[in-house]
User: Fold this.
Amino acid sequence: MTDIRDGTRVRKKDRYNHESWAFRQLQKFIEYKAVEKGIRVEYVDPENTSKTCSRCGHISRNNREGLDFVCEECGYELHADLNGARNIEHKVRDFRHDLESQGSCQPPDVDGVEATSATASRGAEPQASS
Ligand SMILES: [Zn+2]
Assistant:
């Protein structure tokens, strides 16, 4: 994410709008690519993901020091971004669990199966001999 932001130069007063535009574009692109592959896209509340220990769940600003995450509760150490990513993963799993328990989680549609068999049977037509 840092590279994307640093790669574009805009006037300071336009920066906020420009950034949110770029992120919306990236978001749309990811959604488009995911739908193409039959993958669901979930949006997760990022609150506290960088301050929460992904092992014990302890939340504290003191857990994070720059790029290092060290839990003051259980002593768990890892890269801060990796810790944040794991917390997001946990949130998505909770969200999916909720959907599944409500019975509304549909498996992705398997398109193309019928189309493939139709093409195969057409190829089996008898050939006219000369
Ligand atoms: Zn911990």
Confidence is low (pLDDT under 50) at residues 114-121.
